[in-house]
Structures are given as C-alpha cells and as structure tokens.
UniProtKB/TrEMBL annotation:
Annotated EC: 2.5.1.129
Family: Belongs to the UbiX/PAD1 family.
Stored HAMAP family: ubiX_pad
Record lineage: Bacteria, Bacillati, Bacillota, Bacilli, Bacillales
PANTHER family: FLAVIN PRENYLTRANSFERASE, FLAVIN PRENYLTRANSFERASE PAD1, MITOCHONDRIAL
Keyword terms: Flavoprotein, FMN, Prenyltransferase, Transferase
Function text: Flavin prenyltransferase that catalyzes the synthesis of the prenylated FMN cofactor (prenyl-FMN) for 4-hydroxy-3-polyprenylbenzoic acid decarboxylase UbiD. The prenyltransferase is metal-independent and links a dimethylallyl moiety from dimethylallyl monophosphate (DMAP) to the flavin N5 and C6 atoms of FMN.
Record: residues binding dimethylallyl phosphate: Y167, K183
Chain sites annotated for binding FMN: G15, A16, S17, S41, S102, M103, G104, T105, R137
Primary gene name: ubiX
A GO term for molecular function: carboxy-lyase activity
Name the record gives this protein: Flavin prenyltransferase UbiX
Length: 200
C-alpha cells in the first residue's frame, strides 16, 4: 500500500499590512500536516520587522525556528528564485494563497506579470486551473484596485479582503486573525476550528 501524496500549498506574504495573517495561515496549514511552500516579498520582510518585531538576519534560519514545532513541512523559497519548484506547472500543489496581498502584487497577477517567484507561482495557478486565493489589505480602494479585483474574480480567483467579523463574539485580535484565516481555509474546503460558526 502506497502512502498518500503529501498535501502541498503555496503561501505568499507581501508587504501589505497584516503580516500576522500570513504567519497564522502558515502555522495552521503546518498544524494540518501540509507541506507549505513559502514566498515572502522584500517588503513583506520589512513588515515582519515593523509590525511583529521580527528583526531577521538569516531568513531561512528564522523561519525554521519559528515553525519547527508543527507536524507539517516548510519550504522557504527566496522571491528571486524563479527556478524553484513552484514556478513550474508540472509541480503539483493544491493551490496558492497570498495573505496579505498588496495592491502591487494584485496588479501584477491581474496583468500576467511574473517577474518574481510569487507572481510566477500565481500565474501558474491561473494557467493550470488551480485554486488561487488573494487576501487584499488596503483602504480606501480606488477604481484601479477594484477593476483588478474584478478581472481576477472573473478568472476564478477567490478575493477575500481582510475584513473582520464580529458575529462570533471575538475577544481579542488573535480571534479576529483566526476568523480571517478560517474564511480563507473555508474557501478551499479545508477543515479547521479557528472560529465559532453562526448557529453553533
């Protein structure tokens, strides 16, 4: 009897505010025994420092230490590594989530630009017909932002803006972060217990 193929998910973290969303997403996927292929933009690393206090000198060493206690497997891919496995459609993954997603990255994906590994991996999801979820974090939104979101939505990309909900009685920022990560996982039919559902 052969072992089932490991579940692979690509996660992108950009320089939009809300780095904690991406961190929690990676933690949750790893806890569910996914193999996570992580790409962080240059601005994303800066937001790690500004919002979370992560002063990182060795990025791979930091990530290995941060996520070492989870049963899944983490593979970090530098954003300039355009020859990484996830840049090819022949490498099988369940999908890709960019959380949070900056408007610059969203625009690049909408226009088909793939000049770094994150946007190339997103382009692969589109051309291979695999799930792609973007979590834009910006306000207010102007017409170009909205037009790019509409264009991607019409292509089947799931747009899940970083909008918190309050019907489940959140008691902390951690609860609000868990809610949004849970909504992203819901969109991919991934079971979780990150928030109390309506009616429960």
């Amino acid at each position: 009897m052969t072992n089932p193929r490991p579940k692979h998910m690509v996660v992108g973290i950009t320089g939009a505010s809300g780095a904690i969303y991406g961190i929690r997403l990676v933690e949750t996927l790893l806890s569910l025994e996914y193999t996570v292929h992580l790409v962080v933009s240059h601005a994303g690393w800066r937001v790690f420092k500004e919002e979370l206090g992560y002063g990182v000198s060795d990025r791979e060493e930091f990530l290995n230490a941060k996520f070492k206690d989870y049963p899944g497997s983490l593979h970090y891919h530098p954003i300039a590594d355009i020859g990484a496995s996830i840049a090819s459609g022949s490498f099988r993954v369940e999908g890709m989530i960019i959380m949070p997603c900056s408007m610059g990255t969203l625009s690049a994906v909408a226009s088909g630009a793939s000049d770094n590994l994150m946007t190339r991996a997103a382009d692969v999801m589109l051309k291979e017909g695999r799930p792609l979820v973007l979590v834009p974090r910006e306000t207010p939104l102007h017409a170009i932002h909205l037009e790019n979101m509409l264009k991607l939505s019409r292509l089947g990309v799931r747009m899940i803006p970083a909008m918190p909900a309050f019907y489940f009685g959140p008691q902390s920022i951690d609860d609000l972060v868990g809610f949004l990560v849970g909504k992203v996982l819901d969109s991919l039919n991934i079971e979780h217990t990150l928030f109390r559902r309506w009616g429960e």
